[in-house]
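Archive entry. Fields below.
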Amino acid sequence: MRFKALMACLGAVASAFAAGQATGQTLSQADEAKLYEAARKEGQIVWYEAAPIEPMQELVNRFSKKYPGIEVQLLRITGPQQYQRFMQETEAGQHIADLLLLSDQPLTRDLAERGHLAKWRVPTHDRVPEPFRIGEFAYAPYTTDIAIVYNTNKVSEEEAKILASSWKGVLDPRFKGRFAIVKRKCGSCYAPIHMFLDEKFKAEYGEPFLRAVAAQKPLIYSDNPIALDRIVAGERDFVFWLWEAIAVTKWQQGAPIRWVRPTPTPEWGNSWQAVSAHAPHPNAARLMQNWLMSEEGAIALQAAYGSSTVLTGVQDSRPVTKEPWHKPIAQRYDMDWDRWEKNYESDMTLWQKIQDTSR
Amino acid sequence: MSRVQIKKLVKKYGAVTAVAGIDLDVAEGEFVVLLGPSGCGKTTTLRCIAGLEDVSGGSIEVGGHVVSEPDRSVPPERRQIGMVFQSYAIWPHMTVAQNVTFGLKLQKLPAEVVSRRLRSALELVGLEDYAERHVSQLSGGQQQRVALARAVALEPKVLLFDEPLSNLDAKLRERMRFELRQLQQRLGITSIYVTHDQQEAMVVADRIVLMNKGEVEQIGPPVELYKKPRSRFSAEFVGLTNILGGRVLASGGRTTVEIAPGWALEAEAGEFRPGDAVDVIFRPEDIQTSLNPLAGPNGFPARVKSSFFLGNVADLTLETHGIELRGQLSPPQLWESGREIFARVDPAALVLLRR
Amino acid sequence: MMTQVAVERRPATGMTAPRITGETVLWLVLAVFITVVTIVPLLYTIDSAFYQETPFGLSPRRSLTAIVNVYTSARYLSYLGAALLLAGIVTTIALAMGILMAFLVARTDIRGGRALDIVIIMPLFLSPFTGLIAWIVLGSENTGFVNALLGAGAARLGFDLGPVINIWSYAGIVWVMSLFFTPFAYLFTVNNLRAMDSSLEEAARMNGATPLQAIMKVTVPIMTPAFFAAGLLIFVLSAEVYTIPGIIGSTTGFTTLPWQIYIDSTVAPLHRAHAAAAGTVMLWITVGGVIIQRRITRVAERFVTVGGKGQRAKPIALGRWRAPALAFVLAYGFCAVLLPLVALLVFSLMKYSSVSFSADLFTTKHYVDLFSIGNTRLALQNTLMLGLLSGAVCMVAGTLISYMEMRRKTVLASIVAFIGVLPVAVPGLVYGIGLLWTYLRTPIYGTVWILLLAYIAKFIPYAIVVSRSGILQINRELEESARMSGASSLTALRRITMPILKPTLAAIFFFVMLMSIKELSASVLLASQRGPVLSVLTWSYMESGNFQFAAAVGVVQSMIMVALVVITRLAFRVNLEKALAKG
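PREDICTED_STRUCTURE:
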């Protein structure tokens, strides 16, 4: 229901945009200078973000270097909690956050629909592919994609090839009891389930595949960072999916890990960057929103967080892509947001029930 | 020095009545002891006088001013009443001098007055060399004296004592009784003293208020309380006693009471009529014994059941007409158990109480 | 004499109608403050259990679904059962270890004597959460330091040892939790054991009992109420813990109610009404615990104060058990303090988690970051300030509330004291939501002060409970004699009661300060970008996958706590280990 209403609204936006290309916002050098000046008067940005704290701090540092005089305060709050908090604050008239980096597309969409997100068209709007934006309300600055992360001391190259060949590689008897999975509800936790339970793949994967994975007796961790840390340490040989960026961070620190991404690979916008409709520092917020979605921001992001930008025309500049073992995604699997919203909870409950049978 | 008047004092805790309407008038300089078993309301009465408890009914006046009425009360710190507590309540974090001068300093008295009073209070209790000691270094008796010095140093209108000697050992307790009495007489402070120890009460009191179940049982000088108990409770609580149930046979110049068939005792005249049921009461030391029949009324034969040497007296249990009697002989005289002897009680020693 | 005249000149007018004294006014102010600070969030919390849920939060429509689900569904009841069973096991073990050590220190001739106090209390300086990281590092099946070192040693001797311990198991959960709750058992019983009249035991000996029989037949029965009271507190506290059973529990396949509360209130789709409803279940456990505990404490006090005339019991000679007894206490200290701290320190110097200790694995980067990032410095300041302030406020307010409850004995004073104790086991996550709602529309929201109010609300129960037993030990005649000496009740409180209570006050201050510094679950919900604190920062870094940085923050946090102990000790000039044991 709500989604349809939103789509209608988005449709209207799109047609308006199509009708008046010339009137669309394009930021010239002069405009940017004006925005910066206004932003500097505000002097501050409060950014609620759900991504790991260090890379985001790194991004902030780069932004501050380019735009001195604006202090960016970071507060890491994970997706649903950030949504809750932002909603409560907004409804109570406590306008604190300027910028949001929120995980989960449906949550972001809901905020946009309630009018809590500012409509702000970034200059690079047209270079953001359609699945990675919600009207002009929110943009996914980077993609999230699923990978099987393994410890190179524990998994041989031959075994890595088996894992890379297909999602079903994990079912090879030699992997029994050697890997970990994560029992948690989150976007990245759900995306592959969303794919495996897709009508298209019902025959190939579906519920039987999930049961077969559980039958491999994996160790179950309560959260993704813990699973990654334990794989790095060598407690288990690999984790049956994380998202790539979190692994890149560890890899850059020198951890003995690599990863493979079987085909098709779920790749979607999991984190959504938006300006609050009630931002106390509206100009500064817009300035930073622009920068985050700019080419420069994209390169900074790829350097800091290790996830690839959605911006077309920007090269994947991450050092890891130079590695011979690192293969680009061959075929992307796109999310069906309607089905996501409808089935998220029941699918996750099913998967957790199946997980419980593995012990 | 002030008079203390207690009128119809009532104190209730919820449904429980601790003090049930007490009247007491303590004259200036008088030393009155509230005596009674635990739970009789004596300590509650004392705490009401101190102002540590609010009263539920009646009133308390000190020096002619009402200090306690239901719902209205002068707080304890403004009553100018000194108190010595059962636990001494010496403040452990202070020295002897700090304890004694605490109240004086609160009154903002000049330094020389404070030090003069400290000195005289400590001299009074014989602790003049202990001023700078920490109280934890003192013995129980010394702590007791500090408590006393602290109360006296304030030069209160009234001094209250709440079982002040009960935590001391027997010897010290006995000595302190006399000291307390002498001290009070020297200072002449109106004093009210609570104890459950009747001997202690006898020593210190001008008058004893015997209390039972929240009410006054008898008020009088120690001798009167002992010699003329006005109730069975008084007789039993103060000193050892023989209580024999009987029936008045004849009255007139003397009252004759039948105790058991074939055994009657004569007492001095009283307002009894033949047929009245009475208690005949006498003290163990009023029994005389002899191998031969004793001259005078109220002689009777008896058999010795037991006899013990207690030092100053000999304790004796006799049996006559199927009734056991307690006697105390002074100077001590020991009888062989089972011996048939003669005993006698003087009619003047008998107290008759209507049953 | 001057004053005497003054009073005499003022006849019946000197009477004050219903007594309004200085401390009553102060108490009233604090009572209103504490009641508002604790009960309003509590009511908000309970209220939020009665709403319908949407995938994004709560809908404005009322519903009993969550309550019915939590109270009747087999799923939630099994979570509750798991939490209670775990709390029961942990309580039993922690009590057994704590009491045994308390007995050894208080009543025997164990070498080291009171110096052992500090060894046993030390684990309090480690937050359980940091301790968990340490034990994951130490005790993982294949990569734990312990297994790695033992395995390497065995390999040198020529055999394959295999994993010796595995923290990722039910036993692992019990182990970590028991280690961290043992100091509580110790603290709450050691003083009772010290105060017990030794003549009771001696009488048993005179009747022909061996020392062991005397202990089992006399000491243990007499101390049972005190043991039970300590056990109840540990039970309530351990039933609330969610991090340890949650994070480790996933691998062994069990879920406790507090972990489910965490999941329901943080993970999409949110089930906030369920979380709040489950919070009310925890509340009942607390209420029951508090009621039983009060009754028992009363009994216990009666027992303990009977003797307690200060004559120290003659230490029991351990004989040939002297060395093993000391070894036992030191082994505890080794497992609960030394091992985790060393592990944390080593771990915090690594670039990433590993057991191959090569030189290029190590870095001081995390410590450099810790002190160079502005946010961390601010968090350090805030943590310190909040710890000191909440300690001070709880000390004053908690003591006064207990004092009024016990000395004035009015119904209102009892109610205030009861309300003050309620938040003790409402899970911080749920309580945090209530706190958030309470302050959302006030200017305090978004500042660091909201955390101060949260800590006061969360930790005032400790202050009330601890000060209560402290005041119980003060003969009220000490105050009354001050009144008779002319002191107003407030003066008596200030000049007599408070100074005598000093060790207890110091204990409360110190304890609340430690708890505030370690508090995580409510802080996570309430901390703002303007007021970061260390515990939340540790959590953020750990959730971001940087366990090494989290460990570095944990090490610094522990160092701060130790430093604070030293400072408070100097400031109050009391031996805190002893003071804590008195509380």
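CURATOR_NOTE: DSSP finds 13 helices and 13 strands in chain A.
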